[in-house]
Design a protein that fits this description.
Strand content: 15-25%
CATH class of the largest domain: Alpha Beta
CATH topology of the largest domain: Rossmann fold
Radius of gyration: 19 Å
Largest sheet: 8 strands, mixed
Distance between the termini: 39 Å
Structural class: alpha/beta
Length: 309
């Protein structure tokens, strides 16, 4: 592979986390290309004058180069930062541009989409990311860095870390390479399933779940059983305590799923509750509370005119 300092980062998905990574890498001197849907989006981007990055009250506009899906430029390293339900289709749209041995970093919530993409790209190295960082868009092509978190990266097929991870350190992107990324993804999946659906159904901020401790604890009990049945016992250690800590630490925040519903956007229910419930069924594990929660959420989404998958 070429010198990692010269390897382009192609960013597919101009949402909050995709633009957060793009702006930090670009500010650190890394070559970055945004991949946008079509010529109309590219024109809108140029009219905006680039990406705006906001952190700690400071705003900076960055003229990061951008291109469309059908640009002929070969892709050596691709960060896929779109929603889980769009990931496979998005990667398929640029698959012919990937060079043999390309690295594809998958920054999606939940589980299921990462495996689907990896199966579609047998000649690429797929690296999964579990992130707790917070960001939101306050305008089109404008991202606000809302909460410093952490990123775990790993390859489910190969434990050896890639040589370019220092690029993340230089870009002030906190990370750790892990040989068991699936454990991290299962853990985050459980956290999301214990918190996000309830905030939607009760239309509340995360902190309001402190008054529903018994409901949350019962869900955690069931999640522990499912994760153990799925061969992920380490992902269950201290789960109840961590869920309580997350609820307390993010008390003033609305969950990402609540924000999606409030703004009339499709949720990632299939890759969160849907994945857990299907996994429980496949492993013969009873999960009545989780299945009921999924059904309630599907009905609620339907009442808002949103899909339940």
């Amino acid at each position: 592979m070429a010198d990692t300092r010269q390897t382009l980062w192609h960013i597919l998905g101009a949402g909050s986390l995709g633009t957060l990574w793009a702006t930090r890498l670009f500010r650190a001197g890394q070559p970055v290309r945004l991949i946008l849907r079509d010529a109309a989006r590219l024109q809108t981007y140029h009219a905006k004058g680039g990406l705006t990055f906001s952190a700690q009250g400071l705003r900076q506009r960055l003229q990061i180069p951008a291109q469309t899906l059908n640009d002929p430029e070969p892709i050596h390293r691709l960060l896929v930062a779109c929603k889980a339900y769009d990931a496979e289709r998005a990667v398929a749209s640029v698959a012919t541009r990937l060079v043999p041995g390309a690295e594809v970093l998958l920054l999606q919530n939940g589980l299921g989409s990462q495996q689907a993409v990896a199966e579609r790209l047998p000649d690429a190295r797929c690296i999964f990311i579990s992130s707790t960082e917070g960001a939101f868009r306050d305008d089109d092509f404008s991202v606000v860095f809302a909460g410093r978190g952490f990123n775990w990266l790993g390859d489910a097929q190969e434990s050896l870390a890639p040589p370019w991870l220092d690029a993340l350190t230089n870009a002030d992107i906190p990370y750790e390479w892990t040989s068991d990324i699936l454990q991290r993804l299962w853990r985050k999946l459980a956290l999301n399933c214990a918190i996000n659906p309830l905030t939607v159904l009760h239309d509340c901020r995360n902190g309001a779940l402190q008054a529903r401790a018994e409901e949350v604890s019962a869900l955690c009990d069931e999640l522990v059983g499912v994760l153990k049945a799925c061969g992920q016992p380490q992902a269950t250690e201290g789960l109840h305590d961590e869920v309580r800590r997350v609820i307390e630490a993010t008390a003033a925040n609305y969950s990402s799923m609540h924000q999606d519903v409030a703004q009339g956007r499709r949720t990632e229910i299939s890759y969160l509750l849907g994945f857990v419930c299907n996994a429980a069924m496949q492993h013969g594990c009873e999960a009545p509370l989780l299945n009921t929660l999924r059904q309630r959420l599907v009905r609620h989404l339907a009442s808002r005119g949103l899909p339940g998958d």
